[in-house]
Design goal:
This protein is 28% helix and 36% strand. It has 109 residues and is of the alpha+beta class. It has one domain (2-106): Alpha-Beta Plaits (2-Layer Sandwich), CATH 3.30.70. β3 and β4 (56-61) form a beta hairpin. Residues 1-93 form the YCII-related domain.
Length: 109
């Protein structure tokens, strides 16, 4: 099963230190070597929002007022169960500290 794990901006916007980079690097290497990690990355803070209503599409450039709710990073993993995805996300949160992540199963080929 594939799961998309997203993370939102944390309560503090402090730049990551060398220890965090090292721990995340080791975690990513471990998941990559195990064949679990399919893709990962950070996301630009602004983005573009598209809203459709009544056959009309409105395009708005970011950043948006709800920046604290913005998704700032993602990982796409392939694991055997939802519980495994939760455990990986728990390990990620332990490394990066306070904040919020969301796990969603990805359907389709």
């Amino acid at each position: 099963m594939r799961y998309l794990m997203t993370t939102k901006a944390g309560p503090n916007d402090a730049a990551p230190d060398e220890k965090l980079f090292a721990e995340m690097g080791a975690f990513i290497d471990e998941l990559s070597a195990a064949g679990v990690l399919l893709a990962t990355g950070g996301l630009e803070p602004g983005g573009v929002r598209l809203v459709s209503a009544g056959g009309e599409v409105t395009v708005t450039d970011g950043p948006f007022a709800e920046a604290k709710e913005a998704v700032v990073g993602f990982a796409l993993v392939e694991v055997g169960s939802k519980e495994e995805a939760v455990e990986l996300a728990r390990r990620f949160r332990t490394i990066v500290g306070d904040g919020e992540s969301v796990i969603q199963q990805v359907f389709g080929p």
